[in-house]
Amino acid sequence: MDAPLTLRDIARQAGVSLATVDRVLHNRPGVRPDTVRRVKEAMERSAFQPHAAASELARARSRRFVFVMPSGVNLFMQQIQTHLGEMASWLSARRLAVEMLETDVFDPAILSARLEELVGQVDGVAVVALDHPSVRAAINDLVDGGAKVVTLVSDVPSSRRHHYVGIDNIAAGRTAGALVGRFVGGRQGSVAIVAGSQALRDHAERIFGFNQVLSSEYRHLKVLPVVEGHDEDDRSERLMARLLQEHRDIVGLYNVGAGTSGVAKALIDSGRAGEMMFVGHDVTVLTRKLLLNGVMDAAISQNPGHEARAAVRVLLALARGEPILSEQETIRIDIVMRDNLP
User: Fold this and answer.
1) Which of 321, 283, 324, 320 is closest to 304 using CA atoms?
2) Which of 144, 202, 244, 307 is deepest in the core (most CB within 10 A)?
3) Which pTM was predicted?
């Protein structure tokens, strides 16, 4: 649970007055031992940090954080933005202003230009980043300008970004490879991979992990060259339809990013849904439906709410000069199938 900011919140939890909480904080006499215990337990439950709280209240201005997110229809990214919107009261209590900036993250010139516009203007940036020299330079310029920078979902480790919030994408790709290989079993055939872009590090790492497993453990399966749909439904549908037409022996399919609706439509329209093992990413309204009707077999899931909260908490900790709680901010990989849909 996210820690409340104010002494009033602690007083309400402990069932005492604000003045009593203040006396306990400053070890003043006149408070019964049982009351002291209740107040301290309320603080411990909420991980309350009175000095940080007082510092935030004393600030003359709000901190400004900007989330640079992909434009277009990406249900998982929309979930992250929804969860950020639900944090409004939490953010307000900490004098934080969080803004969304949607842009084409697949175009390094456009993405780097958007980041450069923020240099010297913000306290923190969370960015779904393309791993490209111009993007790395823009991130470094942000850092030089005094901003704290967190990469979100897709990392740029060679930049001077302060922290990465997301899953281990190589492990996620290996998990997808193991699922495809085991479900396909001893059948011979090809495996198709549809990605957004291999310039996105999360997609490149997932593909690397996927190929690691198939090349070493399932050598009877032929992995086809990766096609890139830029996470767009129409483009992904055309690419998948062409793959299905050109390769009648496809027995497995790995959709690395978004564009899932287009990939699934091409599969359904071909009449071959259910014939091949189909693994994708993230639990959304769409993938839930595809899992339930048997078009998709498994989704490699990461919690969008956790990622949204972790990105804000990490930026705030960096801005305050406080330690990052790595156990709290580690994003877990889940395997979701029809039978364990959350």
Assistant:
1) 283
2) 202
3) 0.78
Interval 188-224: pLDDT, tens: 999 999 999 998 999 999 999 999 999 999 999 999 9
Instruction: Show Cβ contacts of residue 58 under 8 Å, excluding neighbours closer than 6 positions.
Output: none
Taking the C-alpha atoms of residue 194 and residue 65, their distance in angstroms, rounded to an integer, is 33
Task: Locate all alpha helices (DSSP H) within the chain, ordered by sequence.
Answer: 7-14, 18-25, 33-45, 50-58, 75-85, 88-93, 108-117, 133-144, 169-184, 201-217, 233-246, 260-269, 285-292, 304-320, 326-329
Report d(CA 179, CA 336) in Å as an integer.
Answer: 11
CA distance linking residue 276 with residue 253, whole number of Å? 7
CA distances for 221 relative to 138, 184, 208, angstroms: 41, 9, 16
Q: Please tell me the distance from the alpha carbon of residue 79 to that of residue 74, in angstroms, as a whole number.
A: 9
Q: Where are the alpha helices (DSSP H) in 270-303?
A: 285-292
Tokens of 41: 């337990």
What CA–CA distance (Å, rounded) separates 120 from 135?
17
- Please name the residue that has the structure tokens 């998990």: 175
Q: Are 288 and 295 in contact (CB under 8 A)?
A: no
Give 76-131 pLDDT, tens digit per residue. Answer: 999 999 999 999 888 988 889 999 999 999 999 999 999 999 999 999 999 999 99
Give Cα separations from 277 to 56, 187, 192, 199, 211 (angstroms).
Answer: 51, 11, 10, 26, 16
Q: How far is CA 144 from the centre of its chain?
A: 25
Q: Which residues contact 156 (CB under 8 A, 6 or more apart)?
A: 129, 130, 131, 135, 136, 139, 201
**Cα separation of 240 and 183, whole Å?**
21
